[in-house]
Amino acid sequence: MTPDAAATPLSSINLHDILQQLIQGAVRFSFRLMTAVAILSVGLWLSARLTKIVRRGMERRKLEPSLQSFLTSFVSIISKIFVFVVVLTTVGVQMTAITAALGAAALAVGMALSGTMQNVAGGLVILFFKPFKVGDSIATASGQEGVVKKIMIFTTELHTFDNETVFLPNGALANGEITNLSRGVVRRVDLPVGISYGDNVDAARRVIMDILEKDKRVKQNTPPMILVSSLADSSVVLTVRFWTTWSDLVAVKSDILEQIYETLPKKKINFPFPQLDVHVKK
Fold this sequence. Notes:
Elements: H1 3-60, H2 65-91, H3 95-112, H4 114-129, E1 137-140, E2 145-151, E3 155-160, E4 165-169, H5 170-175, E5 178-180, E6 186-195, H6 201-214, E7 225-231, E8 236-245, H7 249-263
Antiparallel strand pairs: 1-2, 1-5, 2-3, 3-4, 6-8, 7-8
Helix pairs in contact: 1-2, 3-4, 6-7
C-alpha cells in the first residue's frame, strides 16, 4: 500500500470527526441559547411580578409614597441584574469571568458616573431627612416649581404647575436649596398698592381693610395690616399684609387686587402714573 492510499482514509476520518464535533457544539450552544432566551423571558416577567408584589405589599402596609417609589425602583433594577447574570451563566460564560467583568465595570462606571452615585446618595438623604415627600409642592434653586410625584433611585419626578414633567437629579436636590411650599398651612401675603401723592392714606386704608374683612378666606385671628412701606417717585406705596391658607393663596391674591383696583377709584383715591416735573429757569 502506498503512503498516499493510507493517508486518504485518515484525512477523511479526521474531517468527519471535526464536523461531528462542530455539529455537536452547535447543537449544545443552540440548546443553551434557547434556554437562555427562555430564562430571560421568564426572568423579566418574574422581575416585573416581584416588583408589583413589593409595591402592593408596601401599599398594604401604608408605607410613605416616597419610600415606596424608591424601593420599587431599587427592587426592579436589582432583580433585572440578577436575571442577566443567570442568562450569561446559562450561555456558558464562567462565573469568575462575570465577577471580574462586573468588578471592572463597576470601577469604570463608578469613576465615569460619580455624579450618578451622588444621585443615589442624594435619594437616600431625601428619604432619611425628608425635606419633602411625594405630594408636596416644592420650589428648587434652579427655578423649578411643582408637585413631587415620585422619588426614585437617581431622580425625582416633579409635575410643574403648568403640567410639565421634570426629572430632577437627587444629588442636586439633596445639596441645593429647596423651598417646601406645602409646609405651613397658613401663609402670609404682602401686596404692594400705590396711591397718588395727596390722596388720603387713612381713607385708602379703611377701604382696603373693609375688603379684607369681607373676604372669608382672609384669616382674622391674625389681624390684617396696611402699612406705608415706601415713598416712591410717583406714588405712596402701601403694603397690604394678611394671612390665608396655601390652597387659597393664588385666588385670594388675585381677587383682593381686583377689588382694590375697582373700589379705590370710586372713593376718589387714584392710582398714579409715572410722571416727571420739569422746571425751566428763565
